[in-house]
Design a protein that fits this description.
39% of the residues lie in helices and 17% in strands. By secondary structure, the chain is α+β, with helices and mostly antiparallel strands. It starts with a strand and ends with a helix. The structure holds FE2/S2 (inorganic) cluster (2 copies).
Length: 163
């Protein structure tokens, strides 16, 4: 069985059929070629498959593509070239928050949702909001430092207004 859905994916209108059992992660990677969402644990533990649906992070390995109907989806491919990507990637690179890079697209998308939710305030709020994203390389300190650096910077006010 399949379902016709309409959604906005990275700013573009999508209308098409998806299999009723198809996972969002497979839909993005295999049907649309958006491979920035990583495949790892597949049981909603590691967060590496995170994408934003209506501005909030979801584990695409445990989300049905047919549930996207009427929703807005953002993957790392859609974030590239936006002011959010510029600010986040600059801070991540400056603080050495990217090592192997496997977790990075998901980390950056979850970090973007902090603007939307106005959670980019203090370390405790950031830690709580990022707790679903695991990283085997950085020890998290560099990621936290990058995000706290953004929280303290001028562009944050502008970006919060756009989120
Ligand atoms: S692959 Fe989805 S949470 Fe790990
Ligand atoms: S940078 Fe390697 S898993 Fe996070």
């Amino acid at each position: 069985m399949s379902t016709v859905i309409t959604a906005t994916i990275n700013g573009r209108a999508f209308r098409g059929e998806v299999e009723d059992h198809e996972l969002l992660l497979d839909f993005l990677r295999e049907d649309l070629g958006l491979i920035g969402a990583r495949q790892s644990c597949e049981v909603e533990v590691c967060g590496s498959c995170t994408v934003l649906v209506d501005g909030l992070p979801v584990s695409s390995c445990c989300y049905l593509a047919c549930d996207l109907d009427g929703k807005v989806v953002e993957t790392i491919e859609g974030l590239v070239g936006t002011p959010f990507h510029e600010v986040l990637s600059d801070a991540f690179v400056r603080h050495g928050a990217v090592q192997c890079g496997y977790c990075t697209p998901a980390m950056v998308l979850t970090a973007k949702s902090l603007f939307f939710d106005d959670l980019l305030k203090d370390e405790e709020s950031v830690k709580k909001a990022m707790r679903g994203n695991l990283c085997r390389c950085t020890g998290y300190r560099a990621i936290l430092d990058a995000l706290m650096d953004i929280a303290a910077s001028e562009p944050t006010v502008e970006l919060r207004a756009q989120a």
